[in-house]
Specification:
The complex is a heterodimer of chains A (about 675) and B (about 325). Chain A has about 675 residues and is mainly alpha-helical. Helices cover about 70% and strands about 5% of the residues of chain A. Among the domains of chain A are: about 325-350 and about 355-540, no CATH class; about 580-615, no CATH class; about 625-665, no CATH class. The relative contact order of chain A is 0.07. Chain B is mainly α and about 325 residues long. Classes of the chains: A mainly alpha (about 675), B mainly alpha (about 325). Chains A and B meet through α15, α16, α17, α22 and β3 of A and β1, α3, α4, α5 and α9 of B.
Amino acid sequence: MSLAFLLWCVLAFLVTAVAAIVVGQRWNATVSVYCITALISLLACSGAVTALLTHQSAALQLPLGLPWIGANFRLDVLSALFLAIVNFGGAGASIFGLGYGRQEPFPGRILPFFCVFLAAMNLVVLSDDAFTFLLSWELMSLASWALVLAHHGESENVYAGLVYILMASFGTFALLLAFGLLAGPGGQYSFEAIRMHQPTSMIAGLVFLLALVGAGSKAGLVPLHIWLPLAHPAAPSHVSALMSGIMTKVAIYAFIRIALDLLGPPVWWWGMVLLAAGGASALMGVLYGLFQTDIKRVLAYSTIENIGIIFIGLGLALSFRADHFEVAAILALTAALLHVINHSLFKSLLFFCSGAILGATHERNLEHLGGLIHRMPVTALACLAGCLAISGLPPFNGFVSEWLTFQAILLSPELPQWGLKLGVPAVGALLALSVALAGACFVRLFGIAFLGRSRTPAAANAHETSAVSLIVLLAYAVLCLLIGVVPGLLIDTLGPVSQSLFHGTMPAQAALPWLSLVPISATRSSYNGLALLVIIVAIMGSTVAAIAVLASRSTRRAPAWDCGFPSASTLTQYTAGSFSQPIRRVFGTVLFRAQEQIEIPPPGDSRPARITVRLQDVIWDVCYAPLSGAVTYLADRLNGLQFLTIRRYLSLVFATLVILLLVVAIWR
Amino acid sequence: MIRDTVLQAIAMLAVLLLAPLLTGVVRKAKARLLRRVGPPLIQPYRDLWRLLQKEVVLAENASWLFRATPYLVFATTWLAATLIPTFATGLPFSWAADLIGIVALLALGRFFLALAGMDVGTSFGGIGSSREMMIASLAEPAMMMIIFSLALLAGSTQLSTMAQYLLSPNVGLRVTLGLSLIALMMVGIAENARIPVDNPATHLELTMVHEAMLLEYSGRHLALLELAAFLKLLLYLSLIACLFVPWGLVPADASWPTLGRGLAFFVAKVIVGVCVLALFETAIAKMRVFRVPTFLGAAIMLGLLGALLLFVSRGL
């Protein structure tokens, strides 16, 4: 029932896309299309949530696609969870787009692809055979590629589009091989058939690695992340929110579906690989983010960090599962899934905030902002909530999932393999380091953009964004707080998912006194966000009251003190570059080969002193620069083949034929 | 229930009242070590009272965040200090957050304090925030590594359970405990802006970290932030006391005289702790800001080494 309903929603998205092509240039097209997509998304989201809560499972075959397979769709608890995430994000982006999208000069380039993008993400999660899955996956890539290129006038967007389409094709190629191996010699492409016959351990390991590369390149796992910080910021902000907050989650879904569902029992080194990739992504992502000055790029890099955290959770789950520690495996899986939900919320929120800033100031560069808290107070409040949540601070939601991940790490001494015994504490250190650096990254983002004095006239004359957008921002901020305060309720709804994958659930949380969160046992660890929030508010309230009675209440406004030398110039403030300078000195010299060049003109010379910082992207230099160099070299050499005479072409064909025949003869 | 509430209230008030005294003792001890007379022990209380009576001078550009931060920092620090079993284990609040939660509460306060440093838009505030976040980004992982080691040992991150485990006779002397203690002391020094990482009594702006963030604060706001700093010092001392010298800790359901004895033990332990701190601070010089990462890197490595040693010893 729900499955058919969800497929009708997908069809409705596609019909809306066609309609958007027709009416795209009309003045009211933007509003009507976003209204319709918001409505469909909300309906689909409620359908998915119902399916998740009632543990529905349904399958359906449509006579589309390959004739001997058809198009198989299936709705189970795992897909219901991700459908809820996708469509909630879709609804949020659509409603935010109602206000934000009106500034768009060419709505016709965005609206149709936006609808197709939403439809494709739904289809990926719903599909139940390899053919439909790959088709939907590629549709999702292409629709988002078109959205990246919506403003193709800017040369950097064109470059972003090129890198994106290359990496997306590479990822799909890896997935194609993975499914090919899974299908086996019989060519059984439906997931049901794949589940029935388990591959040999070597094939399974290969499929695992291919799935990791395929899904990881879409999710932005280091070192396959290079396209992400280029492509996500290039799209309009509500689309960036969809790409960063939601599409990466679809990639996580693909990985969970293949590695945890289709592949059968895991081997311990799978977890090791995931932990290494996750740890590297978490640290590198946040460090890259700390050195960016473009707001949306900071957010894109922080997506890489959070994907790393999710993969650490999944890696722990796989390791525990391989060694039959069911309780720990379920805890780690729940932590990862909770972080999937949390990240989709706060990353969407922060991208919406960047959209609000972009709309108000036409600036994405942190160095040109400042003082926005006075001009955009509501956006500032919502953005602050998002920054607190993403930095993993209580009582917001990011802390809960990271806390659960740490709790899972603390169970790791039980693991028998030495690789895991020594690897897991190291990954714990990486995770702790990246969470702490994320705090610095978001103090910098919020502090430079919203606090201080306005650095440019554009920031000084900013205005609050539209009311519809503000409602979305506040709703997301409240959700982040709510999940952090009563995480138990959400964790209980994740129970069926872990039941279906790992045949067990976490202890029920909702019935615990005072809505505490107790993952294993009360003497081991417990967390109560509600109590923390209430006590903090109570202390603050009573302090205010006590001070009102005991202390002086008089307040005077005066120029800033600044040790007696306040400067009127806003240039004397700390900038984004100077804020990250200490961290650059600590980490950058090794990881990014950071070089500072300081030029101080001699006395009497009136030129300004200059400081130039050069950061090298080590991963690009090591992995991609040789590759792109080799491709260019080969292309140059092969270029000569385009200008031959007909005789030479014919002799080439003849030579090829002879060689092939020889090969066949030798082979036989 | 009523008894638990009363006990919790006593624990909260005890840390609040004791915190300024500890800072007074440090100052006095440092002065005596330098053969100065030093301020009286109750000077911090007087300072706080004086600041509370003064008018607040707000910078023209200050936003609501600047005004709310002192209350929030005070609340989170006080709450975090309360969550640590000071003289009794198993108090009602202690189940609200474990040791990771306590570290995160302190991080929450720091997040806001760093933002407040940037709010007015002066260069000193920015320098303070930037350096504070750099130090924190190393101190927090070091702290997490210490928590790892101790939690692996005790099988819990709940401080009451950990303290009870460490009190039990089957712990013995362990290398991991020693490494963790050294690392925790290093983290505590960095977090509390003590010498050699930062100087709490500095008047040279470029060397300030913590004080630079508070530069624009005055009156009651400054009083709250100072009190929060006093509380943080007490928090780290009581954390060390609770984990490494847990003797004298009593369960919450003990009789009132036993509880009183526990409280006396606790006061004695932290006063010994601040005297050691004063001795250490007098004997050492402040290091350059960019030597701090090496210092904290050593703390992280010690913590990680402790955790790895545990893993290895479990495997054998």
